[in-house]
Amino acid sequence: MNKAERERKERRLRMLAREQGHTSTYPIPGTSGDIGLRTPQPVRRSRTAPQQPEKQPDNVKSFTPLIQQRQRRHYTLLAVLVLCIAAAVFVFTGAMSASIALLGDAADSLSLYFNRSDGGWPVNTGISEPIQIAELAGGFVELDSEDVVVYSAYGAKVRSFQPGYARPVMAVGGTHFAVYNRAGNELQVSSRTSALYTQTFDNSILLCAMSNNNTLAVVTESGRYAAQLQIFDPSFRQTYSWQMTQNEGTPIAVDFSPDNRQFAAGTLAARQGQLGCKVYFMSTSSNSEGPAYTASQGSMLLSLDWQTENRVVAVFDTYIAVLDPRTATETARYDFGGATLQSAAPGRSQTALLLNIRGGNSLVTLDSDLTPLAEIPARQAYGIKATDTAVYLLCPNAVECYGFDGVQNWVQDDLAARPIQVLKASELLVFTGSRAEILTPPDNAN
After folding, report:
1. How far apart are the C-alpha atoms of 157 and 273, rounded to whole Å?
2. For residues 394, 169, 304 and 247, what is the CA-based torsion angle, rounded to 10 degrees?
3. Does residue 185 sit in helix, strand or coil?
4. d(CA 218, CA 215)
5. Is 65 helix (H, G, I), strand (E, B) or coil?
6. Which candidate, 366, 369, 441, places its Cα nearest to that of 408?
7. Do 320 and 353 form a contact (C-beta atoms < 8 A)?
8. What is the rounded CA–CA span in Å between residue 279 and residue 252?
């Protein structure tokens, strides 16, 4: 075959390959090696099968469970750490002890509610000559020289006990109360249903006061100072201490602010050869001395009543004053003008006084600025109790109710015995002898 024929044959083969879709220049199998073509193969189209994960050998273990276990451990450790920090903060700030006390009070309230069918008014307390009667969470607590009795808001007797003190005195808070011995150095703190703490101090107890949230202030004698004032939270953890110098004096009255962050301490001290009273306004979060109010010379402080953020009523034996605790200044004052104070019922908006004027008792009512509203004869009245809307006079065999305008509303004169006290609890109660009953207007009242 000559050269021209070979070239024609190769061109035909290449044309045939192109028609069949073969573009390779490699020799076609089954032909001579100089032909750079391959026999075309059919093209098949199909869906790509999902790739299967490569199977691991049996001796290789997955690390995923181990990693997840370590993560759980880290989260657990983190949660425990957060709880420990929160508990430390609660303990340091007193929040935990306050929460525990609140839980105890809630349990008491629930128990007393379920046992309310055991009570009812009137009740016989068994105490005929009480030293103190005070409202306690809608009920009351009563003390004589030997016994203490507690009644719920539903008229059910909750408990009674004998503290065994020679000179027992009570300090009452919102749901707790303390009984202490003014002839000794021991006190007992109780809830409505049980005894909580008994505490013995190194020195004799002079005075105790309890706030609405059951914070307790205890004033004791002190070897190096005039007195020491300590404050304890509801779980009896000490939160404050004040060593009072001879110049500052000895506390004779203490009262807490409504938010329990401050307190007022009325003190008695010898100054310039005479006894004088001061009222200090202190913060429970600071040891620095706060502003102080100096009473009129010769006036003896009888009581303190911290009513609002900027209103403290101080009752002296010669006058009554409204003090601003921020500046320790008088904002209102009423002088007795030589009259002798028999009883006082200070209030936020109105105040009632029982004064002995020229040999006879008179009821004097005052507005929020201590401006006189009315003055009426009170005959043989020996005590008063006031609410926001009415004044109650205790008379030998009756309770007389007056408005602050001096107008008599009614007289309850069918009592079993001489009234000892009128108390505003869940009900308005009157105590006569060992009997406590609801005080209601007579049928013929206006």
Report:
1. 51
2. 140
3. coil
4. 10
5. helix
6. 441
7. yes
8. 10
Taking only the tens place, the pLDDT of each residue in 188-198 is 999 999 999 99
Identify which of 362, 356, 367, 357 has the alpha carbon closest to the alpha carbon of residue 405: 367
Chain centre to alpha carbon of residue 113: 21
For residues 302 and 304, give the distance between their C-alpha atoms in angstroms, rounded to a whole number. 7
CB-CB contact of 211 with 173 (8 Å): yes
Q: Collect all residues with Cβ–Cβ distance below 8 Å to 377 and sequence separation of at least 6.
A: 360, 361, 362, 363
Taking alpha carbons only, the member of 191, 187, 161, 163 closest to residue 176 is 191
In degrees and rounded to multiples of 5, residue 23 shows phi and psi of: -115, 0
Q: Residue 443: what pLDDT? A: 81
Question: Where does the pLDDT of residue 85 fall: very low under 50, low under 70, confident under 90, or very high at 90 and above?
Answer: low
The torsion of the CA quartet 29, 35, 36, 39, rounded to 10 degrees, works out to -40
For 84, phi then psi, to 5°, come to: -65, -40
405 close to 374: Cβ distance less than 8 angstroms: yes
pLDDT, one tens digit per residue, over 212-268 is 999 999 999 998 999 999 999 999 999 999 999 999 999 999 999 999 999 999 999
pTM confidence score:
0.77
- 246 with 259: CB under 8 angstroms? no
Q: What is the DSSP letter of 67?
A: H
Q: Point out which residues pair with 365 in neighbouring strands.
A: 352, 374
Beta strands in 233-338 (DSSP E): 238-244, 250-256, 262-271, 274-283, 292-294, 301-308, 311-316, 319-324, 329-335
Contact assessment for residue 187 and residue 181, using Cβ atoms and an 8 Å cutoff: yes
Contact (Cβ atoms closer than 8 angstroms) between residue 237 and residue 94: yes
The answer to whether residues 90 and 171 touch, using CB atoms and an 8 Å cutoff, is: no
What residue has token string 């009325």?
266
Distance in angstroms (rounded) separating the CA atoms of residues 294 and 211: 24
With tokens 């002079």, the residue in question is 206
What pLDDT does residue 37 have?
44
* Angstrom distance (rounded) from CA 343 to CA 323: 20
Amino acid in position 182: R
> Amino acid identity, residue 198?
T
